[in-house]
Amino acid sequence: DEELPPPPGSLVLSLLGVCLPRHGLPLVVLPYMRHGDLRHFIRAQERSPTVKDLIGFGLQVALGMEYLAQKKFVHRDLAARNCMLDETLTVKVADFGLARDVFGKEYYSVREHRHAKLPVKWMALESLQTQKFTTKSDVWSFGVLMWELLTRGASPYPGVDPYDMARYLLRGRRLPQPCHCPDTLYGVMLNCWAPAPEERPSFTGLVGELERVLATLEGEHYVNLAVTYVNLERGPPFPPLPAPAPHPPRGHPPRGGRG
């Protein structure tokens, strides 16, 4: 018999309770996740995941995010480091502030918010420009998460300065296709990175796309870790966009305007 998918709500890490000790900070009680976070799991040398395994993890994340989107929740920090694996290898979408301590090098300050640490290389173009987040910016981050999966946890955009990310994306540049990534799946990733948010798929649409990709895969293709991903100088998949005009300094009218 065909195995039924888990209920979407079960693919989001649940809160069991809160402990309020007499002294010290409150403690959050969460289910035990035997295999830890998804990024550490796929990067482990002793593991031999297949392409099907990795896409299957992505499908579970998409189902969890579909549930959150239906509940009108915006995640804002979707990445492999923020997904957890239980003893049955079921992926749970989570969001831990602790990830900012464990993966500190993946969070950067931006000029407009120097005191805030943001996951710049997972953020949508419009979020980099305005610091606003929507379900469609979560879709962009999901595309980066799928790239993480198919590269077994490689860091996105190596060599690109975090301060240059918006300009890099405005030039139409995106992450390269991973070695073992089917063309159809890379097309799904590119759709997630469409410049206009309304042109990106919904999580419901992504669930269907990933199910179709999985249905077409044949054989067991294993993904090794001995691959280095670089930003190749090839034609960008999207046409360049004009950079937004800089805002005039406060207290001064735009040039040519009336005083």
From TrEMBL:
Biological process (GO), any one: phagocytosis
Region described as Disordered: 238-259
Work out whether the entry's keyword set contains Phosphoprotein: yes
Q: Pro residues composition bias: which ranges?
A: 238-248
Domain Protein kinase spans what residues?
1-214
Q: Which domain of life is it from?
A: Eukaryota
Task: State a single Pfam family of this protein.
Answer: PK_Tyr_Ser-Thr
Q: Name one GO cellular component term.
A: receptor complex
User: Which GO molecular function entries does the Swiss-Prot or TrEMBL record give?
Assistant: ATP binding; transmembrane receptor protein tyrosine kinase activity
Q: Which InterPro entries match?
A: Kinase-like_dom_sf, Prot_kinase_dom, RTK, Ser-Thr/Tyr_kinase_cat_dom, Tyr_kinase_AS, Tyr_kinase_cat_dom
Which residues belong to the signal peptide in this entry?
A: none
List where Basic residues composition bias occurs: 249-259
Q: Identify the SMART domains for this entry.
A: TyrKc
Alphabetically list the UniProt keywords.
ATP-binding, Kinase, Nucleotide-binding, Phosphoprotein, Receptor, Transferase, Tyrosine-protein kinase
- Cross-referenced PROSITE patterns, in alphabetical order? PROTEIN_KINASE_DOM, PROTEIN_KINASE_TYR
Keyword Nucleotide-binding tagged: yes
Protein name per its UniProtKB record: Protein kinase domain-containing protein
Which species is the source of this protein?
Strix occidentalis caurina (northern spotted owl)
The uppermost taxa in this organism's lineage are: Eukaryota, Metazoa, Chordata, Craniata, Vertebrata
